[in-house]
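Write out this protein's structure.
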Amino acid sequence: MSIIYLIRHAQASFGKADYDFLSETGIRQSKILADHFQAIGLEFDTIYSGGQLRHEQTMEAYLDVLAASKNKIPPVHKTDAFNEYDSETILRNLIPEMIREEPAFEADVAAMLKSQREFQKVYEKVMRIWMSKVSPFKNLETWKTYYSRVRAGFNKIMASEGAGKKIAVFTSGGPISVCVQKVLSLSDENTLQLTWQIMNTSITRLKYSGNQMTLFGFNDVTYLELKRDGQLLTFR
């Protein structure tokens, strides 16, 4: 029996020109997470990371703690299998099409960067359309190819790492939801709803043996809650 620790990246830079780097809060979160792993003596046999900067920065905070304490650093594998879907391209391609079909939607789009609530309203609507698409836009994977990519990445871990391992995967909310979808046989719609609930630097644990996988814990941020600082509890 092995355990995979799925770790969502720390808070990224919502509303900035480049989303894919940690905010000041995200840097704090990643350091608290790293200190938590050190405090409970959790040692990983192998670490995997998506190839996006927010994944790598969250992972590097943990590697820095290991290096500072002179603990052994496990093998690190970076793979695009655990990258998030390209939401920017999805929004850019689908929003004009959706406005043509529903002109009133343009008012929602105009307000989407005014608050996270307004953004989420538009984002969820666009993502539902994307999930229903069969034919991809140029250079844009479909929902089907996306979840197939993520599942293939986890299948590769299960096949290569074997039994008795503790494995960390630094990734995003989407790949974590796809993995939970497989374990719990969720619908695509329920998987999408699950994605919105996954918090920054949360830990979801999966046990596996052979090709069988079981959910062992979901969306844990206790180590952040113990700081008694509501600003640390974020979703983007």
